[in-house]
Amino acid sequence: MRLDMRTRGTAVLSAVVVGVVGAAAPASAEPDAGSAFGASARVSLLPGVLGEQGLTVDTGRLAPSSTAGPTEASVVDVPLAGLVRAKAVTSSSVASRAGVHSTAAIVDASLPVLAALAGGTPTVRTLASECTATPAGVTGSATVVDLDLAGLGRLPLDGSPNQRLGIPGVLELVVNEQVTAADGTLTVNALHLRLLGGPAAQLGSGDVILASSTCGRVTSVAQTTTPAAPTTTTAPRPAGDRQVAQVPVGAPETGSAGLR
Description:
Radius of gyration: 35 Å
Strand content: over 45%
Distance between the termini: 33 Å
Helix content: under 10%
Low-confidence stretches: 1-26, 221-227, 241-247, 253-260
Largest sheet: 7 strands, antiparallel
Shape: globular
Number of helices: 1
């Protein structure tokens, strides 16, 4: 602030300090609080499952995204090492003022890895998962359309989390798998195939995960500052111990009437 002190006399500056009233801050989370991917496989297959030789596959995460970036990903015509085939795979994970939202989807997928065991290739038209994290909590869901498990049996789908179909010692299939970590992070897998590696299975061991979404906990950092009371600041007196007083109109400008 610039102060113009041209007038002789005691200058009094009244400064009103206006407090800043902060609105509620947007929901905040760690940069990696949200993530998603279309598919992943880490399996060891016995000879004869997908060829004459045994096969060990670790595909990593296909079409990965995260709130730290990239926030979107997609792949078309997916042959996941012969284990899974899909027409398209997409994922997204975005942080906003409202919180974190992650999604993943697979269209027209099949599971050739189970063809010999099932007496046909299991197929599904759509697999999708999503989760949302806000200061109120973390929620998730999965969508499964036209799941055909061939000879493995039927799995009635009612939207409940963690619906299972299995063959003891051979495999377990989990639809709408929802796993909550100790820190509150929620992961939703539209479909999770576990190969259990039993000696009678003639299949192998490992995991295949399709359409996975993850959301970490989100906290709201609301900061509000109460306006401060006005303050008064007095400018320094002129040099010396005398104070300049106002001189009435018509009074002499010299002598004791002017200075006290």
